[in-house]
């Protein structure tokens, strides 16, 4: 089973991002790049599921979806290639 978790990546003045989830208030992590944030968010989600299990608290039902039902649609944040003038190519 897979989980769909909304993430908020907030840029920090010193660089990098703080990662939170409006759906799981206990999920808080950080990273220097978007890719690092996503990897850390996966680890943080694992910790949150352990906390919920310990508290005998159900996870929000809206995060679950059946991964065997067909194609998986995701959105990704990726760097946009820039031209020599610094504009999108």
Task: Write a structural description.
With 89 residues, the chain is α+β, with helices and mostly antiparallel strands. The chain is built from 1 helix and 5 strands. It has one helix at 34-55; strands at residues 2-3, 8-11, 17-20, 28-31, 64-65. A hairpin with a 7-residue loop joins strand 3 and strand 4 (28-31). It is flat, with a radius of gyration of 16 Å. The N and C termini lie far apart (38 Å).
Blueprint of the fold:
Layout: E1 2-3, E2 8-11, E3 17-20, E4 28-31, H1 34-55, E5 64-65
Antiparallel strand pairs: 1-5, 2-3, 3-4
* Regions with little confidence, pLDDT below 50 for 5+ residues: none
The biggest sheet amounts to: 3 strands, antiparallel
Secondary structure class reads alpha+beta
Terminal-residue CA separation: 38 Å
The percent range for strand residues is 15-25%
Radius of gyration: 16 Å
Number of helices: 1
Strand order of the largest sheet: 2-3-4
Average pLDDT taken over every residue: 87
Order of helices and strands: EEEEHE
> What's the total count of β strands?
5
Helix content: 10-25%
Inertia-based shape: flat
